[in-house]
TrEMBL record, chain A:
Membrane-spanning segments: 21-43, 84-100, 112-136, 148-168, 189-207, 219-239, 319-338
Organism (species): Halobacteriovorax marinus
Alphabetical UniProt keywords: Cell membrane, Membrane, Transmembrane, Transmembrane helix, Transport
Subcellular location: Cell inner membrane; Cell membrane
Annotated family: Belongs to the binding-protein-dependent transport system permease family. HisMQ subfamily.
UniProt protein name: Amino acid ABC transporter permease
TrEMBL record, chain B:
GO CC terms of this entry: ATP-binding cassette (ABC) transporter complex
Similarity remark: Belongs to the binding-protein-dependent transport system permease family. HisMQ subfamily.
Regions crossing the membrane: 12-30, 84-104, 170-189, 210-227, 351-373
Protein location: Cell inner membrane; Cell membrane
GO molecular function: transmembrane transporter activity
Name this polypeptide is given: ABC transmembrane type-1 domain-containing protein
GO biological process, alphabetically ordered: amino acid transport
Membrane topology: Multi-pass membrane protein
Domain named ABC transmembrane type-1: residues: 78-370
Record-linked NCBIfam families: HEQRo_perm_3TM
Superkingdom as given in the UniProt entry: Bacteria
TrEMBL record, chain C:
Record's protein name: ABC transporter ATP-binding protein
Molecular function (Gene Ontology), one example: ATP binding
Statement: the UniProt record of this protein carries the keyword Nucleotide-binding: yes
UniProt keyword terms in alphabetical order: ATP-binding, Nucleotide-binding, Transport
Gene3D superfamilies: P-loop containing nucleotide triphosphate hydrolases
Pfam assignment, any one: ABC_tran
Record bears the keyword Phosphoprotein: no
InterPro entries cross-referenced by the UniProt entry: AAA+_ATPase, ABC_ATPase_HisP-typ, ABC_transporter-like_ATP-bd, ABC_transporter-like_CS, MetN_ABC_transporter-like, P-loop_NTPase
Domain ABC transporter: residue ranges: 5-239
């Protein structure tokens, strides 16, 4: 039956090692086969890869033309078509810097400078106004760049805030400790969209008359307020993992509180919690999709708008699968990275 | 400035400065809010709650009409939140448990399939999944007249999910009550077992008597009730089904989305819990002659649960909080109703605070209850 | 008098439990004191009061004539003249040996990098670990770690050194290398307070022995008298247990 003996032993060991497992294996193979052939028919045989909306409506399979027609709008929203190279350049720069920063040997100060540069360059590129780049107002920013902006700015602000909150929660000073604890528990107890509602309907009331803050910035503040509480709990976990002797040795050497934290405790604590930190980042990346509820044009929202085009009604499944794949690629690679680091740290035992 | 050299004084000073800036911040916000509200002519306070709401609610556990008050509307929304969170959590825990255990199966296909499930579900935003399920209901499923009928008693259509149910007989209505009684009985048997363990060193069975209790009591009542057997089948009547249980497309897609999403996280927690059990436990159990399934159910899972319960609690809370995404697909949960009220009345501050308050109290009370339970199962160690 | 440490009527409680009961102890410049006693007798707590890792509730501790209060400047300047070596080394695992040594001179004493490196290299030579300078603590043996820890304290050029059971966490074969460094330090005239059970070291180095039990100083005498003619019953019992 089987060609090679190795394959046969492998199958026997991993698929048919008991009656129950043989039964399960057969059932799964049958279901998988049915599903895949259905999917193949939907995505290849009956799909419309070339044609128009009318052809799609007639076909029983996937409407790939819809994605071809709309991907520009889904990915970049209302950004002027002629200028679209600018957000693309920003995304390429961002991704390269993310990959550069993921290597342990690049975890040093000059990488931070590169990030600061990236912020500067991206703001100029996206907004324009100098170097003869036409101005693009922020309400025309949308799609993937907006999702990435909300996430990246969110991380860079909420991470230090989370550290401050975590230190506050472990402070000797009761008022600061109580405030930090209450803030963290309050935020963790409510859903993110309540904060987004707050940003859209309450923040404008908080400001003096005449002062208006951009909707994107308000949503960004809500995201930061939300994520920093979760970051704080992650960091606190790291602080708890540092033995008391480290604090004592630093104090005995005459270092003050800030020096002890900055030079001795935080470098160790933050490194221990890199995997959960990355997980928080993944969660936040997914959560930025909630800004659709307050009508911001992020990736999810441009998708929904594309689906409402009267000429292209009824291709929801295709659209959702398309952006699901985008989200999946980002989140999965971050998750993979976090697991690799975790394994590496576990193998080393101690951190160096 | 000798005053500032004392550590205690420095701490006092920091705290005073901090408190003052917090007070200043809130005064600033409150003043601006007050003047903005005055300008818009909105009276702050909760008196609007007793006014007539004037909108309909798609589905409600209690009777609600558009001339009822906001108070009742919000209560109805709250009950809808509780409903989806309660059912969703039970299903998500069960599914998560199954997937978590199967992801460690020695069957290659089963393990890979579980992992594939977890990875694909976890890495896609929940709101996208909700949109997806909702569009499956509204756009892919056929109209009621040609509803899909995958298994007997289950009908899928763009009007939602219709399920066969028990008929409206008093016996079926008190079944949940017997269920609750059985839970009480469970704790009674557990206490008895612990007592017996302390006295004689032999633990008495807990699950079997509970199960027997449930079966015997139900059976006795069933006899008393005159052997009711009729079920309520959904049957097509005009443009809709009659009979059975109806789940709206909004509720169904929210429930499916929440259950699948949370179960993937629960599965990872259960899996990590099982892996956290020391390998020596497996060896010890098999050296005592237990087979793999016995080892898993008697030795490993009880220990794994101890590790898994705290993160599972936070997933229970996450599902409850995430149920607020109902607003995106139009299921009238608490946030959704509050949002509608907000758009009509403009009472933004009150309603957003109310939303936060409700979820905060759910979170705090759940974690309180779960912590008490957690303390009762933690390993007794010296 | 040349008292560098004056402890008067010192008492300390952890919650309800009194760990130190009315301790009086003076240490002259250049004096070597060995404190011993059963576990839980308060010896570690006592020396940790000297650099205020522990805060006492009653009595006073003076270092170089300056009383330790919660005055931050006094505490920080005291810690720069009082070095401490811990039982579990407490090296900073994320820094190399050299960085461990230069950290305090650079940040607490505000020396520039070259000055700090010069001092660090000098003390690495003294404790004979110069060849390990660029390794991380996790790559060293216990004895090497403790020698680095001693060097790290010495880099601040302290006038007093406190040793809190420096050899208790070491494998037996590594005890000697650490004691050798400590003996050398003693010969150079450093003021030292050592909590240790190494009685050989005590006999060789100590100017004075202090025996503590249940938070009190039970006996204080010269090593000859302490080992040959202990006065209190508890000391005799303790010495019996530890020497046989």
């Amino acid at each position: 039956m089987f060609k090679s003996k190795a394959l046969r032993t492998w199958c026997h060991k991993n698929l048919f090692n008991s009656k129950m497992n043989s039964f399960l294996s057969v059932v799964i193979v049958v279901i998988l086969f049915k599903f895949l052939s259905y999917f193949y028919a939907w995505f290849v045989t009956n799909a419309v890869w070339i044609g128009d909306a009318a052809a799609c409506r007639e076909a029983s399979g996937a409407c790939v033309v819809f994605i071809k027609e709309k991907y520009n709008f889904i990915l970049f929203g209302f950004y002027p078509r002629a200028e679209i190279y600018r957000p693309i350049l920003c995304i390429v720069l961002l991704l390269s810097l993310v990959i550069y920063s993921s290597y342990e040997k690049n975890w040093k100060k000059c990488t931070l400078i590169l990030w600061a540069l990236l912020f500067l360059v991206s703001t100029i590129l996206m907004g324009g106004g100098i170097f003869s780049l036409p101005i693009v107002e922020s309400d025309q920013w949308g799609g993937l760049p907006l999702t990435l902006i909300l996430s990246v700015v969110g991380i860079f602000v909420s991470y230090p805030l989370g550290i401050v909150l975590a230190l506050g929660r472990r402070s000797k000073m009761p008022i600061i400790r109580i405030f930090s604890t209450c803030y963290i528990e309050l935020i963790r107890g409510v859903p993110m969209i309540s904060l987004l509602f707050m940003s859209s309907v309450m923040f404008p009331l908080f400001l003096p008359e005449g002062v208006v803050i951009d909707k994107i910035i308000r949503a960004q503040i809500a995201i930061i307020m939300f994520v920093c509480a979760y970051m704080a709990e992650v960091v606190r976990g790291g602080l708890q993992a540092i033995p008391r002797g480290q604090y004592e040795a630093a104090e005995a050497l005459g270092l003050n509180y800030f020096q002890t934290m900055r030079l001795v405790i935080l470098p160790q604590a933050l490194k221990v919690v890199i995997p959960p930190t990355v997980n928080t980042v993944i969660g936040m990346f997914k959560d930025t999709s909630l800004v659709i509820i307050i009508a911001l044009f992020d990736l999810m929202s441009t998708m929904k708008t594309a689906l409402k085009d009267p000429e292209w009604l009824g291709f929801n499944v295709e659209g959702y699968i398309f952006i699901a794949l985008i989200y999946f690629m980002f989140c999965f690679s971050m998750g993979k990275y976090s697991r690799t680091l975790e394994k590496k740290f576990n193998r080393k035992g101690t951190l160096t | 400035m000798n005053f500032l050299k004392s550590e205690k004084n420095r701490e006092y000073l920091w705290q005073v400065l901090f408190t003052l800036s917090i007070i200043a911040f809130f005064t600033f916000i409150l003043r601006n809010t007050q003047s903005a509200l005055d300008k818009q002519g909105i009276a702050s306070g909760f008196s609007f709650l007793s006014q007539e709401a004037g909108f309909e609610i798609g589905e409600s556990i209690i009777d609600f009409f558009s001339d009822d008050t906001y108070q009742l509307a919000l209560l109805s929304g709250f009950l809808n939140t509780v409903k989806v969170a309660f059912i969703g959590n039970i299903l998500a825990l069960a599914l998560g448990f199954i997937v978590g255990v199967t992801s460690l199966s020695d069957n290659y296909l089963v393990a890979k399939l579980s992992k594939f499930y977890v990875e694909s579900i976890r890495n896609i935003p929940l709101i996208l999944q909700l949109f997806f399920w909702y569009s499956i209901f509204t756009e892919v499923f056929p109209s009621v007249r040609s509803a899909l009928n995958p298994i007997g008693g289950v009908y899928l259509s763009n009007r939602g999910l219709y399920l066969v149910s028990f008929s409206d007989h008093w016996f079926f209505n008190i079944l949940p009550l017997i269920g609750i009684l059985s839970v009480v009985a469970f704790f009674f048997f557990k206490k008895r077992s612990i007592k017996s363990l302390e006295r004689t060193g032999v633990a008495r069975k807990i699950f079997l008597p509970t199960l027997l209790f449930f079966i015997l009591v139900s059976f006795a009542l069933w006899l008393v009730a005159g052997l009711p057997r009729e079920l309520s089948w959904p049957t097509l009547a005009g443009f809709n089904f009659e009979g059975g249980v109806h789940l709206s497309p909004e509720f169904s897609s929210l429930l499916i989305g929440l259950v699948l999403y949370t179960s993937a996280f629960n599965a990872e927690i259960v899996r990590a819990g099982i892996l956290s059990v020391d390998h020596g436990q497996w060896e010890a159990a098999s050296s005592l002659g237990l087979n793999k399934n016995q080892t898993l159910s008697l030795i490993v899972i009880p220990q794994a649960l101890r590790v898994a319960i705290p993160p599972l609690i936070s997933q229970v809370l996450n599902l409850t909080k995430n149920s607020s995404l109902a607003v995106a697909i139009g299921y009238p949960d608490f946030v959704s109703v509050a949002n509608t009220s907000l758009n009509i009345t403009g009472q933004a501050v009150e309603l957003v605070l109310l939303i936060m308050l409700v979820y905060l109290s759910i979170s705090l009370s759940t974690s309180l209850v779960m912590n008490i339970y957690n303390r009762s199962v933690t390993l007794k160690e010296r | 008098m040349n008292q560098v440490i004056e402890i008067k009527n010192l008492s300390k409680w952890f919650d309800d439990f009194q760990v130190l009961k009315d301790i009086n102890l003076n240490v002259k410049k250049g004096e070597k004191i060995v404190i011993c006693g059963p576990s839980g007798s308060g010896k570690s707590t006592l020396i940790r009061c000297v650099n205020r890792l522990e805060v006492h509730q009653e009595g006073s501790v003076r270092v170089n004539g300056i009383e330790l209060t919660d005055n931050v400047e006094v505490i920080e300047s005291t810690r720069k003249v009082v070095g401490m070596v811990f039982q579990h080394f407490n090296l900073f695992p994320h820094l190399t040996i050299l960085e461990n040594l230069t950290l305090a001179p650079m940040w607490a004493k505000k020396l520039n990098k070259n000055e700090a490196l010069e001092i660090a290299n000098k003390y690495l030579d003294i404790v004979q670990i110069a060849d390990q300078a660029h390794k991380y603590p996790g790559q060293l043996s216990g004895g090497q770690k403790q020698r680095v820890a001693i060097a790290r304290s010495l880099c601040l050029k302290p006038e007093i050194m406190l040793f809190d059971e420096p050899t208790s966490a070491l494998d037996p074969e590594m005890v000697k290398e650490v004691l050798d460094v400590m003996t050398k330090l003693a010969e150079e005239g450093m003021t030292m307070i050592c909590v240790t059970h190494e009685m050989g070291f005590a006999k060789q180095v100590a100017d004075r022995m202090v025996f503590m039990d249940e938070g009190k100083i039970v006996e204080e005498s010269s090593p000859e008298e302490f080992f040959n003619n202990p006065k209190s019953e508890r000391t005799k019992k303790f010495l019996n247990q530890i020497l046989h």
